[in-house]
Amino acid sequence: METAGFVVVDKPAGMTSHDVVSRLRRLARTRRVGHAGTLDPMATGVLVLAVGRATRLLTYVTGCDKAYEATVRLGRSTVTDDAEGEPTGGAPADAVTDDAVRAALVPLTGEIRQVPSAVSAIKINGERAYKRVRAGDTVELPARPVTVSRLDVHAMRREPDGLLDVDVTVECSSGTYVRAIARDLGAALGVGGHLTALRRTRVGGFTLAEARTLDELADLDDPVTLPMAAAAARILPGREVDAAAARTVAHGGPLPPSGLTGPYAVYGPGDRLLAVVAERDGRARPEIVLTTPDELV
């Protein structure tokens, strides 16, 4: 059977998520590699990748909540809302108090409507927003609902030229732009703001504690650090079935309902991952099948 499973990478700064995918393709000796959730080149930290047929599980990771450590610089705005973009304005933040910063973060916490950064991968009429910005177009994206469940300040540092750096921890729903939080904080305080550092510490239950650097992965005989069945167990509820039911599922057939809600993984004898199913119309029907009938022999 082909190599299949998850790899939790500690992405370095300066690489795109696609660069990391390309590197893992070489290490795993397969082109069948994907990732769950893009990190900007400036950002570091947790990037969840899948190899082989485990790439089909990524759809169940993409919507997971995420956590970050970030630094917001107040006193300057940029076209990209981060340190990689050209300055677009700002005002000295010398008069901005610590209490004012904390107060301005309150409306940015909870269930909010956030306008994504114009330099994002969101498509407008089939074209990525960041490509239109780089071509000189003015891009206005609609606000969308996101949840910022945690936005804590750890430190504030006064820097030269009227700049104020604010270190924060962010826990948020998928689709939240931390760059947009920096932008909106600066706007609320009237001084402008952008992101200077971003490190993702968690995607769902995948954390930095288990992440490997690309150099560490290169030293392994097999870069897959979490086999497919174990990966599924981390992101989905599970159900075990006997050999006869396993054959049914492997052929794409339905099972009797179990009462579990939402998609869940089905495991056969030997803890083999068979499929991901969802219950509807009184049956548990496969959404994806991950084991063929021949592999059950």
UniProtKB/TrEMBL annotation:
Alphabetically ordered keywords of this record: Isomerase, tRNA processing
E.C. number(s) listed in UniProt: 5.4.99.25
Record domain tRNA pseudouridylate synthase B C-terminal: where: 179-219
Active site: 40 (nucleophile)
Domain Pseudouridine synthase II N-terminal: 25-178
Domain tRNA pseudouridine synthase II TruB subfamily 2 C-terminal stretches: 237-290
Keyword Magnesium: no
Catalysed transformations (reactions): uridine(55) in tRNA = pseudouridine(55) in tRNA
GO BP of this protein: mRNA pseudouridine synthesis; tRNA pseudouridine synthesis
Domain of life: Bacteria
EC class name: isomerase
GO molecular function: RNA binding; tRNA pseudouridine(55) synthase activity
HAMAP family per the UniProt record, alphabetical: TruB_bact (MF_01080)
Family according to the record: Belongs to the pseudouridine synthase TruB family. Type 1 subfamily.
NCBIfam families reported in the protein's UniProt record: TruB
Protein purpose: Responsible for synthesis of pseudouridine from uracil-55 in the psi GC loop of transfer RNAs.
Protein name as it appears in the record: tRNA pseudouridine synthase B
Organism: Actinocatenispora rupis
